[in-house]
Amino acid sequence: xxxxxxxxxxxxxxxxxxxxxxxxxxxxxxxxxxxxxxxxxxxxxxxxxxxxxxxxxxxxxxxxxxxxxxxxxxxxxxxxxxxxxxxxxxxxxxxxxxxxxxxxxxxxxxxxxxxxxxxxxxxxxxxxxxxxxxxxxx
Length: 138
Prior knowledge:
By secondary structure, the chain is an all-beta fold. The protein contains no helices and twelve strands. The chain has strands spanning 2-4, 6-10, 13-17, 23-24, 31-39, 48-56, 63-66, 69-72, 74-79, 93-101, 111-118, 127-132. The radius of gyration is 17 Å and the shape is elongated.
């Protein structure tokens, strides 16, 4: 997982613009998350549900106002991979995902974390932390 300004997937490859940051703002900015997932050989030919959700420094969901009410900042999707005939049996299969987000109204001077889960499971290192700069008052 990599925080970036924008990401795209083409021909199974990730293309990343402005990647690797962990400090943003204080004003809302568009952003992206580039993901490269290794799918086990035995997990091919199955639908895998994934979720990214944004938490504040206390581990609470970040909520935003929408026309449909207040909702947590979450992104969901599914992927499925086919076992390639050109690689040895048992080889993990790459999946590239790109998530692009519009400007989020985050509080300046705070810490946030994107957390990933796949099939309802998550690992400690499936997280991306970042900080919003404090607003400078002249």
